[in-house]
Amino acid sequence: MSGRRPHHTHAPLAFAALAAVLALTAAGCSPESGQDSVERTERTERTGRTGPSAVRSEAAPTTPSPFWIDPESDAARQVREWEQQGRTDDAKALRRISERAVADWPAGDDPEPGIRRAVRGATAAKSTAVFVAYNIPHRDCGLYSAGGAHDAPSYRDWIGSFAAAIGNAEAIVILEPDAVPHLTDGCTPAEYHDERYELLAHAIGRLKKQPRTRVYLDAGNPDWIADPDKLTEPLRRAGIASADGFSLNVSNFQTNDAVKAYGTRLSGLLGDVHFTIDTSRNGAGPLRGDRDQAWCNPPGRALGSPPTTNTGNELLDAYLWIKRPGDSDGPCRGGPAAGTWWPDYALGLARRSKDATA
Fold first, then answer.
1. Has 223 been annotated as catalytic?
2. How far apart are CA 107 and CA 22, in angstroms?
3. Annotated active-site residue in 36, 70, 74, 329
4. 178 catalytically annotated
5. Is-catalytic flag, 327?
6. Which of 178, 218, 278, 327 is catalytic?
7. Contact partners, residue 182, CB within 8 Å, separation at least 6
């Protein structure tokens, strides 16, 4: 399967056109074997060394984000609660999360209600809904985010419901974080490999039947599979040629510079495939030292670049907040269960962000 497709060359144009329209309408496991993990309500991932430079050195985007901002997110509700309690400074800081777009992770049992709600909101706001499809069988090798669909037929039904719920809306889907890297690092047992490749290719094909849906197949992060060449054949087998690109750094903390360099290398190996980067929590880069626990609720982290299509890089389609900042990575460092909203951690991310004034 070829890593290059005709519509790759049109990806930046589609995003640029969307951003221009919205600007007018809106003023608005360890590396190679690490046990990385991710989730809407349950997401964990391993990380390590920092890259060449931190996100703090980057300029803020100069155009409005084209992505839908959920007015009923955990962060938005927390802001209202703190305002009622008189915690005005904390509420103001947390607006750095509540007033930005974060991805929606639809439920593994029935994804349709959540997707339809987001689609209605995004359509009304003339913006793009961002979703994460995270329900592959044998997910996360039995760790914090274990689970997923019971079997292959169940997954096909689930992804069919997922796609149908999107309908004709403008949407981005980040497809199955960790699924391809776990095939590469030996974490997923060999007897499941062929099935997973088939299911990922099926999911891409089904989602791409929706006329305005863009699909990015997850490819981990540069501190996990250090040699991007090891990902090229797995990504091809999983159907990258039919997708709009790949996603990087989901729920991780690697810096923009490190991820862009890695993404550019992987893109070249696949024939200039485009990619996205999760910048939700990478504003201070990864935690140094203690690599075994650097992925799980690391202290001292910060929000990264706000979601935008204005990346200044022709291969990089968007910075996205895929991990929901403030959702716990798991029961470590005093955190609640994986995926549970943790307001104190969210507040720390917000206060340490680049645009923090407090």
1. no
2. 29
3. 329
4. yes
5. no
6. 178
7. 36, 140, 141, 188
